[in-house]
Amino acid sequence: MNERALRVLEFNKIKEMVKGYTSTEAAKDLIDDLKPYDNIYEVKEHLQETKEALNLLTKKGAPPFEGVYDIREGIKRAEKGFSLMPGQLLRIATMLRCARKFKEYVGHKEGEESYKVIEDICEGIVPLKTLEDSIFNAIVSEEEISDRASSALYNIRRALKDKNASVRDKVNSLMRSYAPYLQESIYTIRGERYVLPVKAEHKGSVPGLVHDQSSSGATLFIEPMSLVNLNNEIKELMLKEKAEIERILQELSGKIYDSIIAVRNNASTIWELDFIFAKAKFASSLNCICPNVNNEGIIDIVEGRHPLIDPKVVVPLNIYLGRGFTSLIITGPNTGGKTVSLKTVGLLQIMAMSGLMIPARENSTVSFFKEIFADIGDEQSIEQSLSTFSSHMTNIVDIIKKADENSLALFDELGAGTDPTEGAALAVSILENLKKRKVKIVATTHYSELKGYALKTEGVENASVEFDVETLKPTYRLLIGVPGKSNAFEISKRLGLPEYIIEDAKKSISSESLKFEDLIQSLQEKSIKASEDARKSEMLKLEAINLKDKYEEKLYSLEETRGKLIIDAQKEGKRLIKETKEEADNILKNIRDLERMGYSSDVRQKLEEERKKLTNKLDKLEEETDKSEKDKGEKIEEVKLGEEVYLPKLNKNVIILSKPDNKGEVQVQAGIMKISVKLEDLRVANKSKEVNKKINKREAKLNIRMVDPSLDLRGMDAEEAIYSTDKYLDEAYMAGLKVVTIIHGKGTGILRKAINDMLKSHSHVKSHRLGEYGEGGSGVTIAELK
């Protein structure tokens, strides 16, 4: 994306607003680097991550970023094996705790809404609770190491405490002995040693070492000889304490060094999450929505609001193009809102393409463009001796050179700044040239010639900003399908210009021009109503489709739950039958024990008959339970690779992938999962004969060799990856696979580019594309084989 458009449309101001919601400087740096993404798949994925973060904020509250700092400097020092300061260690531990809590924060119970993109990001987090606890147990604050950090430190501090108590007792005793010679009855500390304030004239009366004197010289601070050994012992303990603290810090730093890859990855993930949630908080503050994204050049923004204008005064904008027309010409009076409309379209497009949600209504649509060009504002340059017109033309020349069908061009007052006749002709020529190249265009103008051009040219539509003649003020509403009416006569009349002057002015204008203006006025009401009705109908249709998809998904979920409940009920029934049989056997055993104590043979016979009845009844119930499972289909007599069969345990059809092994198990494909099941548990599926007919055509190929439907290239260099992919495509083609997935990861994009370049010319490949959301996004390429 060209930097000029980003600057002119003030995208940097949006980024500054997003920065206000971050917790770390690292996330601010990510926002500084934010710009529109290079392909539609990345745009959709980053919009989805923002949407998921907003949902998490709404449902679970603030994410666990408490106390997180930018720890890049600490990680750099740890990577080099340096010992870290207590504050740096604490911040790393806080980050590790935040990372661990984030995995809990995004987790969800079965059946609850999932957050696929953010969960995928959090998969890279490695909990390091042992390291985290070690740091928190050892360090109390940036200035204090805990006594619990080590037993040696605890013993040193305890000895130091005892020694200080002994010194204070001794000092108090000496103060009483030397009281006549002391300046004050207090002791003090100089150079971490206990000293007495002795009067200078009595220095000979207190034998010891002089450490300091007062500014007047009247007091000497003397360490009595009897305290020297005690002070030395305290000093020695303090040195031991310092050495032990340094050892503890070095040990903790070493633990971080041992896990530096996980620590660095966790930190990078947290900064990325901080960046994502800053986007979500920004979206929440402006009541933004996640727009639909297409790559067909269709824009349909419903009640879009410019994010830099006060929400209390901003007028929502309805604008669309790309379906019935690709060029929109906006006319209207000065200060009527034409330029704001232009900037709103461009800025909302750039925001959406950068993964930011936009301030608009649900079902708004934006398009993916490789380039957005903007010629807006007064670009007069004194340094280059360029007039306004020359500066605009310089920019337009650059646009004409670079614009293509994947571009959106925004022009403000196209052709202005020169002779009106020549300017209008030039503007029409520029628009026509770009239209032929299928460039999407939104342009503002004052020239009536451009209104006529839009009326008579297919693919070009008029629009205008509404003006209220009664109040002589613009309403800032954009009306598509209606060219702007000048309203000069009406405005002049309301301002008090005499009627005869207005009539003379009308006579000097051709009747065709007046009829044209009247036609505009009559079209305005009809066109606006028809346009709004059509768009409301489209929105209702989209809402209906969304509701249909939502309830179909719920129905599928209910059916799956029903199947699981049936299986669970059957298991529970079998368990109860087993327990009942065991209980009955125990009762009968107890009865036999009673028989030995004196029951007659008649009683024994009756008890045995009752026992048989109970056993038969339980056996019959168990048979019926087993039968209910087995009656779901006939057993598989012959295993055919690729055949669709029924698996009662999952209550769904699966595909056989392998022959039975020595345990009598076969591998089957159940949805996206591959599982091993016993052959005796499989049943013939409904419509299996029809399926067999289709599969038998490819059975010869399938029997050649089983080929995985995906290839993982992560960790390979480009040359090795191309060789592996070429070999894999040969095998997949021979095996009869129609669609394969090549996993290359996101990374720097070098491996993805190499694979995509190779696929373009491969003889087995019919078409290829990057993965969509749910398939792996830009980390995978989907190839369709011939």
Automatic annotation (TrEMBL):
The record's InterPro entries line, in alphabetical order, gives: DNA_mismatch_repair_MutS_C, DNA_mismatch_repair_MutS_core, DNA_mismatch_repair_MutS_sf, MSSS, MutS, MutS2, P-loop_NTPase, Smr_dom
Q: What is its EC number?
A: 3.1.-.-, 3.6.4.-
Q: Which residues form the Smr domain?
A: 711-786
What superkingdom heads the lineage? Bacteria
UniProt keywords (A-Z) are: ATP-binding, Coiled coil, DNA-binding, Endonuclease, Hydrolase, Nuclease, Nucleotide-binding, RNA-binding, rRNA-binding
GO molecular function, a single term: rRNA binding
Residues reported to bind ATP = G332, P333, N334, T335, G336, G337, K338, T339
Its GO biological process annotations read: mismatch repair; negative regulation of DNA recombination; rescue of stalled ribosome
Q: Extract the coiled-coil ranges from the record.
A: 227-255, 577-638
Question: What is known about what this protein does?
Answer: Acts as a ribosome collision sensor, splitting the ribosome into its 2 subunits. Detects stalled/collided 70S ribosomes which it binds and splits by an ATP-hydrolysis driven conformational change. Acts upstream of the ribosome quality control system (RQC), a ribosome-associated complex that mediates the extraction of incompletely synthesized nascent chains from stalled ribosomes and their subsequent degradation. Probably generates substrates for RQC. Endonuclease that is involved in the suppression of homologous recombination and thus may have a key role in the control of bacterial genetic diversity.
Question: Quaternary structure per UniProt?
Answer: Homodimer. Binds to stalled ribosomes, contacting rRNA.
Q: What family, per the record?
A: Belongs to the DNA mismatch repair MutS family. MutS2 subfamily.
Protein's recorded name: Endonuclease MutS2
